[in-house]
Amino acid sequence: MSVKDQQGLEYSGASPAAVARYERAVAAYHCYCGQPFPDLKAALADSPQFVMAHVLIAYMTLVGSNEGLRAMGAGAYAALRDLPKNNREAGHAAAVGHLLAGEIRAAARALEDVAIACPCDILALQVGQTMDFLRGDARMLRDRIGRALPAWTPDMPGYHAILGLHAFGLEETALYDRAEAAGREAVALEPRNNWARHAVAHVLEMQDRRAEGVRFMRDDAAAWTDGSFFLVHNWWHTALFHLGLDEIGAVLDLYDGPIWGEPSDFAFDMADAAALLWRLKLRDVDVDDRWAALARGWEAHRLGHNAFEDAHAVMTFVAAGRDGDAEAAVDEIARIAAGVGDNAAATRDVGLPVAQAFLAYGRGQHRRAVDLLRDVRSIAHRFGGSHAQRDVLDLTLIDAARRLGDAALERALVAERKAALPVVHRRPRGSVALGARAGAH
After folding, report:
1. Which residue blocks in 262-306 are alpha helix, DSSP H?
2. Which of 46, 244, 372, 426 has the fewest Cβ atoms surrounding its Cβ within 10 A?
3. SS3 sequence, 20-74?
4. CB of 387 within 8 A of CB of 437?
5. What is the pLDDT of residues 175-214, one digit of tens each?
6. At what angle do helices 36-46 and 51-62 cross, to 10 degrees?
7. In this structure, how many other beta carbons lie within 10 angstroms of the beta carbon of residue 416?
8. pTM of this prediction?
9. Count of domains observed in the chain
10. Which residue segment(s) compose the domain that 424 sits in?
């Protein structure tokens, strides 16, 4: 049994009613909002052999989540593995298998091949871009989507999603004007598109347009916050705008509200919370017992899924004053780095030295922290994340140089930072926004 969707893609093992449910789930996933799981469950209740419904469940549960959801993703793969598939679906199934094995590079390649053959497969493009993000591959973040653009026209369903994906790829390759235009067009077409809004937020972050960033996120908050499962990260961006304006009260209000008012056990959310509190720590802001509460969240997290996340676990234990736990985490990260696979390589190249730098910083060993971060920052993209997220490394390096008393290095790093800001958005002479990421590298 095979049914086609609105893009002309064929689906195996599904009834027309199940495909309609699936399309609603995919539309929610494109926006990172809504309730995709009920529609997927209904689709599978109708059509248990619906390959792509199982695939989407796997994609939604295997990245940046928790152990319970990862188990759901493994179950979805077990259910789809032996089902009849067309070539496109076989490519997706292969990508899921690679994800389960921790083979991010292979998953990215499998989805690249799917999208080359079927450029209207938005799911392949979206999940493929997620793989590029996990690998810090800025060029593929852009070009994976750019290849598909000729197959799309504005009247096609899901066009806003393509624009949002393209906007983020353009931003991560410093094509800021084009990124902002594409992102804003996507938001105008679909105000709930959290990814497109997030892409515009990145542009405003990279260009140090702080007040504008606050307005962009807050003035239309109802549109993107309702039912969002990208809520924490987009509020994190909003908090960074406030931080760049020295509005510490607003930052803490956001942390205590939508960012961590209801603690999450999703690794991506915990990493955002840690990265925000660490930026406050670098400014010597007293955050009371917030670190202790966040550290309890990391206790249940199993290291080894993602080098970027693991470094933030160490960051949290260090700031919470749990030196023994931080050291134990670094030892475990060293063990992971000695292994094989994509995450082991990212950990070996970047994750381990970054974790060691955070531990050294916490112990007051600022020369060691400086040396480790100077060695790794030019290749930090290898452990994933965005330019804005990895900026915490430069901020820590600057502060470690200051605490070390190396005025020449601090002065050089601050000058480097100011020089990389777009000229039109430069601050007055003599000021520097240490909350901003000054340019891409």
Report:
1. 267-282, 290-299
2. 426
3. HHHHHHHHHHHHCECCHHHHHHHHHHHCCCCHHHHHHHHHHHHCCCCHHHHHHHH
4. yes
5. 999 999 999 999 999 999 999 999 999 999 999 999 999 9
6. 150
7. 14
8. 0.93
9. 1
10. 263-441
